[in-house]
């Protein structure tokens, strides 16, 4: 639409003047209004001719003339454009998860819970909560809402649905708290972490320091896997002396799970192996070899095989390792406090069971640590137990008695000479025999029976027994235990070593635990260093040092473990200036290698024993020509 | 061991995550009475256009949470739960289109604005707000789901699952 506008042109603009007397000037007002009001097209608007009145044009003769003309102005055309707003596009993805009927186990509601349910109410009567009460309830809920442990899918699970299945599971604390699974004691937070670590893993090493409850964590995870329907057949392999310990722990932590101990003659064992009524079967390592054919070729299959003290398979060429690796299975777990004893190859050996070929011996430490990281969980007591009683080491650096020293010097001098004369015929076995002979002299003089270590032990035991405490004494040799027994009779010691039949061992432990007159137990490292719970003891004596500090740690942790009554004092006896001191120095260096692999584990470290080269280097052996031997 | 029916004893949890970079992502998790997952549905990130932002204005959030995303997600699920919980007040609007009651978790004092009047569903364990018309049904549902110890915690699972799904999508795209 075009509009015509009337433009007004003044040929001469009036000069404004001030009114002299404050009166208005009618003639000028009319003229100005006429000039400012445009006319619409069609209305004939003749040029205005305004004649000045008598006021401010009075001094001029010319008339004011206004020319008006019409212009055409083009304006844009307005149009309505409809905008169609589509729905915001939403794309979805969805997953469904199987609901295991086993989880339908409902706890029997106790009176308190029933009371809670009866209190639950909804409706107008409670439409607006009492603010104070609401705050109280919120505070209570907040107090209950402590740390929650979630299952995390391991890196090797790649399918999104599988990863979400684990991520969307309830926190483990809810399973315990809701009564779906009852626990005799509430696990420590780090134990929940351990369960969350094991649960989703098809290959895992639980490498916690001894005493942190690897057994409990493994059993609880097995129990959850059984109840969730993810597994239905489990084989647990452990050293023979630990079978009863596992059986006992299973009764405590998974009382509703049927367990079969593989034992008896061949027919009975075959029946037990195939018994579907027991989803958990326990076998010892020796049995694996005896029943090899049945296990490997008998059509058995296990959803989970767990190896306790898995360092037993560190040697990939051993028969035990070969059989363990060949057991038909879906999941593989290794439980060990010492995944690396002598060299990183130990870990490679364990991984041959978990995931063959994943680690190789030619990998360097850093590569092994990175590759194995997602499969290994290792915690030490210092890392996870703030309230764990302290473990105090007391190094008893003792001088040999004069009789011992004379015998020792003579034996070492003659022994070294004998070794050097053997030259090329010298073997590690010869050196090893000398080391053992010297270590035994450090314990007892073979001629007189004198022993500075025994003197010290008796003196310490006087105080320990008088204060009503109990002590564990470890030695490498049963013969040394025999020699120390007479001097210790008044402390009523019991013994636990290779000469004690397996059937009597539980009785020995019971007496040590329950007889107040029995103040000490004499143990060999071999029999007593694993699997026993002696946390009521507050004193541990290492009468002689084992080759491998990891074994020593295991021994010490019989007493220093969860439930320890108080600080545990560990007395490490060391004969100064002898072979014992030289071995201790070498072992200290080995701990550094362990650190390189488990670098984020603080506190006491476990490491391996002596290698062939290290044993040779204990004596500065040289040929007559001065060439180094070994 | 009695097998329980999924549809009889289940509860839904619904929330929407918003991010400036990704947009709006909804997650819907259905749990059984023991807190175990039965179903999980999530959206790809939803990005409203500029036109949506202008024309919906301040009602865009309510539309996305209370109608668009929630409506689609909940329809995807096969299991119909006893109750749907959300930690976002806008989700209460979903009840207008569903047969299932919708409850707001974690606002016992009712300070948040909702489009309908709500009442507190007082429970020793859980703080919920619901529309008064659902009072009886919600009370019965809470009694049936008494084993579920925490109504806040499942939202953490949903958010982690959304992150996991987004990371997976990113990894596949890379």
What does the model show?
- The complex is a heterodimer of chains A (630) and B (174).
- Chain A has 630 residues and is of the alpha/beta class.
- Chain A is built from 24 helices and 17 strands.
- Chain A folds into three domains: 65 residues, no CATH class; 232 residues, Rossmann fold; 226 residues, Rossmann fold (3-Layer(aba) Sandwich), CATH 3.40.50.
- In chain A, strands 7-8-6-9-10-5-11 form a seven-stranded parallel sheet.
- In chain A, helix 7 packs across helix 8, helix 12 runs parallel beside helix 13 and helix 16 runs antiparallel to helix 17.
- The longest helix of chain A has 21 residues.
- The radius of gyration of chain A is 45 Å and the shape is elongated.
- The N terminus of chain A is likely disordered.
- In chain B, strands 3-2-1-4-5-7-6 form a seven-stranded mixed sheet, with helices on both faces.
- Chain B is of the alpha/beta class.
- In chain B, a hairpin with a 4-residue loop joins strand 2 and strand 3.
- Chain B has one domain.
- Helices cover 32% and strands 26% of the residues of chain B.
- Chains A and B meet through strand 4, helix 2, helix 3, helix 4 and helix 5 of A and strand 2, strand 3, helix 1, helix 2 and strand 6 of B.
- Strand 4 of chain A pairs antiparallel with strand 3 of chain B, so a sheet runs across the interface.
């Amino acid at each position: 639409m075009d509009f015509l506008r009337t433009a007004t042109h003044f040929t001469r603009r009036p000069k404004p003047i001030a009114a002299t007397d404050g009166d208005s000037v009618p003639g000028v007002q009319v003229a100005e209004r006429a000039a400012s009001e445009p006319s619409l097209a069609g209305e004939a608007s003749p040029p205005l001719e305004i004649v000045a009145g008598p006021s401010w044009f009075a001094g001029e003769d010319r008339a004011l003339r206004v020319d008006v003309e019409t212009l055409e102005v083009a304006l844009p055309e307005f149009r309505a454009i409809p905008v169609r707003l589509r729905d915001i596009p939403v794309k979805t993805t969805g997953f469904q998860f199987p609901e295991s009927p086993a989880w339908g186990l409902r706890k029997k509601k106790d009176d308190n819970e029933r009371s809670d349910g009866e209190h639950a109410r909804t409706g107008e009567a409670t439409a607006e909560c009492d603010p104070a009460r609401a705050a109280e309830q919120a505070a209570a809920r907040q107090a209950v809402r402590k740390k929650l442990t979630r299952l995390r899918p391991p890196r090797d699970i790649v399918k999104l649905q599988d990863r979400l299945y684990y991520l969307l599971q309830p926190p483990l604390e809810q399973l315990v708290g809701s009564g779906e699974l009852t626990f005799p004691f509430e696990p420590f937070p780090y134990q929940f972490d351990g369960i969350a670590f094991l649960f989703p893993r098809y290959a895992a090493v639980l490498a916690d320091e001894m005493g942190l409850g690897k057994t409990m964590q493994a059993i609880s995870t097995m129990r959850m896997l059984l109840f969730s329907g993810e597994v239905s057949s489990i084989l647990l392999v452990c050293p023979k002396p630990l079978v009863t310990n596992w059986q006992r722990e299973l009764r405590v932590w998974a009382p509703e799970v049927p367990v079969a101990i593989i034992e008896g003659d061949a027919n009975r064992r075959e029946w037990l192996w195939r018994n579907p009524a027991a989803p958990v079967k326990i076998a010892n390592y020796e049995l694996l070899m005896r029943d090899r054919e049945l296990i490997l070729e008998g059509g058995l299959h296990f959803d989970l095989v767990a190896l306790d003290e898995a360092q037993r398979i560190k040697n990939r060429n051993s028969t035990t390792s070969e059989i363990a690796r060949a057991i038909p299975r879906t999941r593989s777990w290794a439980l060990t406090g010492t995944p690396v004893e002598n060299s990183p190859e130990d870990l490679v050996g364990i991984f041959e069971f978990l995931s063959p070929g994943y680690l190789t011996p030619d990998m360097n430490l850093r590569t092994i640590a990175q590759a194995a990281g997602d499969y290994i969980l290792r915690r030490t007591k210092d890392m996870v137990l703030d309230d764990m009683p302290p473990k105090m080491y007391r190094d008893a650096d003792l001088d040999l008695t004069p009789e011992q020293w004379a015998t020792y010097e003579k034996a070492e001098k003659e022994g070294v000479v004998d070794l050097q004369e053997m030259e090329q015929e010298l073997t590690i076995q010869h050196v090893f025999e000398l080391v053992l002979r010297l270590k035994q002299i450090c314990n007892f003089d073979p001629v007189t029976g004198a022993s500075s270590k025994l003197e010290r032990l008796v003196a310490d035991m006087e105080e320990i027994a008088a204060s009503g405490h109990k002590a564990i004494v470890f030695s490498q040799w049963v013969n040394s235990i025999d020699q120390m027994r007479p001097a210790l009779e008044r402390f009523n010691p019991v013994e636990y070593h290779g000469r004690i039949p397996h059937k009597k061992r539980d009785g020995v432990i019971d007496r040590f635990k329950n007889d107040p007159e029995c103040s000490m137990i004499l143990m060999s490292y071999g029999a007593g260093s694993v699997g026993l719970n002696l946390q009521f003891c507050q004193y541990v004596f290492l009468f002689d040092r084992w080759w491998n500090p990891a074994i020593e740690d295991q021994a010490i942790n019989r007493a220093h473990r969860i439930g320890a009554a108080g600080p545990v004092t560990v007395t490490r006896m060391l004969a100064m200036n002898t072979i014992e001191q030289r071995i201790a120095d070498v072992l200290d260096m080995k701990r550094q290698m362990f650190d390189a692999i488990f670098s984020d584990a603080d506190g006491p470290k476990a490491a391996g024993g002596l290698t062939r080269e290290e044993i040779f280097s204990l004596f500065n052996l040289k040929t007559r020509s001065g060439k180094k031997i070994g | 061991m009695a097998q329980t029916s999924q549809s009889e004893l289940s509860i839904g949890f619904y929330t929407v995550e918003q991010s400036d970079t990704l947009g709006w992502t909804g997650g819907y998790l259905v749990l059984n009475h023991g807190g175990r997952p039965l179903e999980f549905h999530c959206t790809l990130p939803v990005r409203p256009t500029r036109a949506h932002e202008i024309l919906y204005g301040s009602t865009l959030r309510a539309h996305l949470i209370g109608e668009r995303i929630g409506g689609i997600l909940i329809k995807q699920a096969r299991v119909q739960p006893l109750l749907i919980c959300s930690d976002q007040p806008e989700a209460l609007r979903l009840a207008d289109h569903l047969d299932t009651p919708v409850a707001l978790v974690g606002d016992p004092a009712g300070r948040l604005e909702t489009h309908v009047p709500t009442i507190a569903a007082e429970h020793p364990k859980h703080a919920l707000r619901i529309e008064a018309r659902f009072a009886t049904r919600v009370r019965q549902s809470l009694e049936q789901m008494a084993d579920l110890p925490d109504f806040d915690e499942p939202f953490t699972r949903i958010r982690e699952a959304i992150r996991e799904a987004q990371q997976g999508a990113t990894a596949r795209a890379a």
